[in-house]
Every structure is written in C-alpha cells, then in structure tokens.
Amino acid sequence: MSDSIFALASAPGRGGVQVIRLSGPDAGATLGHLTGRPLPPPRQATLASLREPGSGEVIDKGLVLWFPGPASFTGEDVAELHLHGGRAVLSAVTDALTTLGLRVAEPGEFSRRAFENGKLDLTEAEAIADLVDAETAAQRRQALRQLDGDLGRLYDGWRTRLTRALAHLEADIDFPEEDLPGGLSDAVRPVVEGLAAEIGAHLADNSRGERLRDGISIAILGAPNAGKSSLLNAIARRDVAIVSNTAGTTRDVIEVHLDLGGYPVLLADTAGLREAAEAIEAEGIRRALDRASRADLKLLVFDGSRWPLLDPATLALLDEDALPVLNKADLAAHPAEPVVGGRPALPVSAATGQGLPALLSALGSEVERRYAPSGAPALTRARHRSALEDCRDSLLRALSAPLPELAAEDIRLATRALGRITGRVDVEELLDVIFRDFCIGK
Ligand code: GDP
Ligand code: ZN
C-alpha cells in the first residue's frame, strides 16, 4: 500500500490557474476534509472553497475534481485542485495537505505510480517526459506518437513473436522429431532471422528519433574572419557570439538552439581553422575539429570577398554532410552561382542578411530529408538502443548456436532485453534513474 502524495502539476509562479494533484489512498478523504463537503461526482469540475484544516479559514475558491481509482492517471485515487495561480495560495495549500498527512511527491512519482499500476508502459512514461520537454512541432509529434503506445506495441509485438518461437524451440528440445543440424529447427529459424533483420533495420535508422529528441547538431566551420560568428548571430537574430575584427577570437564553441521548420537544431560556432600560435587557440581549433566530426551537418563558411581564394583547411572538410557557403556576398568577387569543390555554394551576407532565407531553407530541407519521420515509430533513447543491440546480438548468437539448448538460452536473453524497454522485466534498478529526470508533478 503506497502513501498519499501531492505536487504542483502546473508551472510554478504567478498565473491564472495552478493545478495541484493528489494521489493515493487518502486523496478522497483529504479532498472531503478541505472542502468540508461530500466528494463531488467523479470527473466533474465542481466549484468549492478550500479551508485550512485547523482554523477553518478559507484558503482559496476554485474547481476540484475527483478521479476514483483505478480509472485515474496513476491508477490510485486522485484529486485535482484548480486554484488561483500564485505563491501564497500554493504555500497555504501545501501546509494544509502536509497537516493532513500527505507528502510532497518526488520528481516523476505520479508517472512512476502509473507505470507500477500498469496504466503506462515505460516507453509511454518516457514519452510524457519528452512531451513536457518538447520545444518544436516534430518533437511534440514524436512524443505524442510514443505516448499513444506505438513504440511499446512494436517492441511488445517482437517480444510476443520471440516468446512463441521459444515455446516452439522448447517443444523441439523435449520432443525431437528430426536431428537438428544446428540449434534451430526449420520452423524457428526464419522467425529469429526475420526479427534480427527487423531489429537491425530499426537500429540503422540514422538515429532519427534520438536526433529529434536531443536536437540535430550543425557545426559552423571556416577560416578565421570568414564571418562564422557574424553568420551565427545573423541566423539567431540575437547577439550570442563575440564578433570582432581580430582573427581567432571565437575560442570556444558557442551554441544556439533553433526551431528549423519544426525540427530542433543546435547550431554551433567554432574557432577558426588555422595554424594557431597561441595554445588556447589551438585548443579551440581542436574542439572545432572535434565538433566537425561529431556534427550531423556542417556549414562550411568561406570568405567570398577573397574569391577565387578558398581556405584549404575548410575545403578539406567538404563531404556529403557539408553545405558550402560564401559569406560577405555584399563584397562579392565571385560569380552569381559559385561552385565550391564541385558543389553549388550559397552566397550569403551576414552583414546585410542577403541569402539568409535561402540558407535557412536549404538547411531546413536537408534536415527534413534526413530526419523526417518514416512510417514506423522511431527509436528515441540510448536506453532503448542498447537493449535492442543486446537483443539483436543474442538473436545472432542463437542463429549460430550448435545446440538447441544454447539457442534457447540466447532467445531467452533476447526476450528479456526487449522486455526491459517496455518495463515488463528487470526494471526495478532502472526506475530510479528513469523517473529522476522527470519534473515534479509529472
Ligand atoms: P569569424 O572569425 O569567422 O567568426 O568571423 P567574424 O564573424 O568575427 O567576422 C570577421 C569580420 O568580418 C568582422 O569584422 C565582421 O564584421 C566581418 N563580416 C562578417 N560577415 C560579413 C559580411 O557578410 N559582409 C561584410 N562586409 N563583412 C562581414
Ligand atoms: Zn568567430
């Protein structure tokens, strides 16, 4: 039997309305105590005055809702208080609820109770956190889809197929009809092969879902004074990077978060690529190159006023993940449709803003082309990826196992790995870590 908890479910601070959520066996009695009235009909907003338990003084007047378990978010008895948003009201309600024996909830404790009471699987609980954190439309859509259970159903479906294959294999072991050449019979082998291939394809998805969740990284690279910092500022339309006339002043990596047509993008300015005299600058360049190697996309900035001279260190980074840009188009010495390293380059001017809409739209279509959602739900977390890798490795071992008993053990491991993702098995030790990252009141 769990204790009863409460927390502010809306954002803290002043506001039109704040929502305080109660969950646990005492939620109903507490609501009755605060209002001094019988419980309202389930799931109906009812106007009520809330009173201090000791003095009977009115704390606030607002709407109260009563959700008797198990048909509630957590599966327990739940009550919601929709009160005027503000600190004094919150602090009076907090005192009252504490006096009545309720405890302030830990971060994620409501979702954790929902999971433990079977209202959500782990992927759905994680989707709630993602939806709360979503900053762009594509992130919101992905989280919502996962909250609808698309990802959980995919993994549970695979797990069911494996469980059936395992039952078949165990029957083969108990009642052998044929001498099995390897570990798996003709009925089981195609199932395991098919699943290994499906999981392999799901893993090799360009980390689409993880990128959408964490942000797509674009590094701005180029020689000192090419105009990288100016370009970042012009794109972000705010002063985030230091712009100066002295070469080599952007010493560390400066990052801005952009919403590019609904996709979350982390755009990073880097130190200029050149032979550095100063140690601190050399460190900046090392970081720039490190950024370049880890970035999903690279914006290669050339100084267009020096045409036809192109910085060789920047040119060396031109690959299929790079977009060449000729900056300082206001001083243009280059042709109208310049070609850099065999690729069309976009003329832009950080100073006048010329070419920026075209640059943003080119970046936007590139991001869309790479990360637009496909038909199948996307893999969204490193936790899921590592469990799926374990699963696929076990399946591959099962396929080459010399004995059916060994293959069965591998398939059992593969099934467990899938079960860990949705929280069917082996999760006790994971839950603290998973729910710790949630906000309070979720
Ligand atoms: P970074 O070292 O690549 O980050 O270059 P900065 O952004 O610091 O710019 C270097 C110099 O070029 C500064 O004096 C900027 O004002 C100038 N600059 C940057 N972009 C443009 C541009 O589009 N046109 C002109 N005329 N000057 C620019
Ligand atoms: Zn700079």
TrEMBL record:
Its EC number is 3.6.-.-. It is an enzyme of class 3 (hydrolase). Its cofactor is K(+). GO terms for molecular function: GTP binding; GTPase activity; metal ion binding. Signal peptide: none annotated. It is found in: Cytoplasm. One of its GO terms (cellular component) is cytoplasm. Residues 215-368 form the TrmE-type G domain. Keywords: Cytoplasm, GTP-binding, Hydrolase, Magnesium, Metal-binding, Nucleotide-binding, Potassium, tRNA processing. Belongs to the TRAFAC class TrmE-Era-EngA-EngB-Septin-like GTPase superfamily. TrmE GTPase family. Exhibits a very high intrinsic GTPase hydrolysis rate. Involved in the addition of a carboxymethylaminomethyl (cmnm) group at the wobble position (U34) of certain tRNAs, forming tRNA-cmnm(5)s(2)U34. This is tRNA modification GTPase MnmE. The lineage of its organism: Bacteria, Pseudomonadati, Pseudomonadota, Alphaproteobacteria, Rhodospirillales. The gene is mnmE.
